[in-house]
Fold this sequence. Notes:
This is Response regulator transcription factor. Pfam families: GerE, Response_reg. The protein is α/β, with parallel strands linked by helices. The chain is built from 11 helices and 6 strands. Strands 2-1-3-4-5-6 form a 6-stranded parallel beta sheet, with helices on both faces. α4 (96-105) links the parallel β4 and β5. α3 (69-77) packs parallel to α4 (96-105), α4 crosses α6 and α9 (179-186) packs across α10. The relative contact order is 0.11. The model has no long low-confidence stretch (mean pLDDT 83).
Amino acid sequence: MSGTPVRPVRVVVCDDQTLVRTGLVTIIGAQPDMEVVGDCADGRAAVDLAGRVRPDVVVMDVRMPVLDGIEATRLLAGSGVRDPVKVLVVTTFNLDEYVYEALRAGASGFLLKDAPPDRLLHGIRTVASGAALLDPEVTRQLVGRYASRIRPSDGGDREIPLTPRELEVLRLIADGLSNSEIAAALVISQETVKTFVSRILSKLHLRDRVQAVVYAYRRGLVS
């Protein structure tokens, strides 16, 4: 007796470069557990399309005509959105400041455009599952490069309602470490790390690890 079929991850692809968009659609559409339910070339079209087809994930470029990916992300996944859609931002290094703003706008993660296809597919699956995706290499360069701009002049550890151990875990999250890497660094189990992450997000009223990274840099917890 076979089990209930698993519904494929429904994806919308938004990129103003036709060749890139076509490539993404082809790669994603070839996966048995994914379905491309639409593609478009600007942020306004992405917002409208997502409203009609209700995808699980929108793969979003940053710089586009009509409405850029940051504003589109804010409209799809921002804090005031009643029924947010998960957004996976794809970018290049020279757009890193824009990506930081996209994360603040509500994106669930980001990848480099030159990432191999398997990393893109893993990213879509990760974001669709409700987790956040942070590329460690990009995290260190992306948020770290703008730490001086986004960090308040005072703050530090004051008024942060976390235990010393939770602060330690938060700093490692901000460094782009995965749960397994944090577990190895602190010599604790992955289940314990998951518990710490859950407590951190709850105490700080954060949605996911992406917001935790932004919070850590804004409060000056990472140099």
